[in-house]
Amino acid sequence: MPKIKTLQAASKRFKITALGKYKYKHANMRHILTKKSTKHKRHLRQKSILPKIYLTTIMKYLPYI
After folding, report:
1. 41: which residues sit within 8 A by CB, 6+ positions away?
2. Domain 8-61 is of which CATH architecture?
3. Which are the contacts of 6, defined by CB distance < 8 A and separation ≥ 6?
4. pLDDT tens-digit readout, 13-24
5. Does the record carry Ribonucleoprotein as a key word?
6. Would you say 58 and 3 are in contact if contact means Cβ atoms under 8 Å apart?
């Protein structure tokens, strides 16, 4: 049986933690930042844990990670 290829776009966007959870960076921090509040931008800077509903999809994309 052939090996399953890893989706490279997903491997660049998601990292696995020591407990086996997936963390990712928030969107909306590239441009048009003047209209966003400081509090909103501060919360977007932090990494977040992937919700369980997306876990099976991401695990298909990253079979060996």
Report:
1. 29, 33
2. Irregular (4.10)
3. 61, 62, 63, 64, 65
4. 999 999 999 999
5. yes
6. no
pTM surpassing 0.85?
no
The mean pLDDT of the chain is 95
Q: Which residue pairs, CB below 8 angstroms and at least 24 apart, start in 19-23?
A: 21/49, 21/50, 22/49, 22/50, 22/55, 22/58, 23/47, 23/48, 23/49, 23/50
Query: Domain boundaries in the chain?
Result: 8-61
Fill in the amino acid letter for 43: H
